[in-house]
Design brief:
Blueprint lengths: L5 H10 L1 H10 L2 H18 L7 H5 L6 H10 L4 H8 E3 L5 E3 L21 H5 L7 H4 L1 H7 L4 H13 L1
Antiparallel strand pairs: 1-2
């Protein structure tokens, strides 16, 4: 599949949501979790995040206190100024970006604060950890945002 063709995998993801949901509801979590590191590695050997950046264009990570401290220090800002300029409290009382795309996303899809990015960004799309199985709704949502998630779900739902 040509992963640079954004609309192709997104369309397929929408078409396969019921299949993916059924798979995630019936798969043995331990069996899938053991396979995730290899599947993650394979997916990211084919997919370059810099070709996509859908996560940065469409979602905000949650900014935890350590993230705020680390990023504001990196930007040489007071924490309160960083919060005032870039963040807001969402309906779940989480600190998130005021808007999208991400303020720190550059035109070439690189991240201006990559070395100190929020832990949510560093972990996204959670394809090599148990969150992939434990938070099914998140995984299903991410399959329409991240081609790696779609790739992994498509592959494992066909073989397990």
């Amino acid at each position: 599949m040509d992963w640079s063709k954004d609309d192709v995998w997104k369309k397929k993801s929408r078409e396969k949501q019921k299949q993916f949901r059924k798979f995630l509801d019936t798969v043995q979590p331990a069996k899938l979790i053991r396979q995730l590191p290899d599947l993650h590695e394979e997916a990211f050997s084919k997919i370059d995040c810099l070709d996509c950046a859908n996560c940065c264009k469409n979602h905000s990570p949650t900014f935890k206190t350590p993230d705020i401290k680390r990023i504001s220090k990196y930007l040489r800002m007071r924490e309160s100024d960083f919060i005032d300029q870039y963040l807001k409290m969402d309906e779940d009382n989480d600190m998130v970006l005021k808007g999208s795309p991400c303020t720190f996303l550059e035109a070439d899809n690189t991240c201006r604060i990559y070395d100190v990015r929020p832990s949510d960004c560093a972990r996204y799309p959670y394809t090599d950890e148990d969150v992939f199985v434990k938070r099914k709704a998140l995984t299903l949502t991410n399959s329409g945002v991240c081609p790696a998630v779609f790739h992994i779900l498509e592959k494992v739902s066909a073989i397990l």
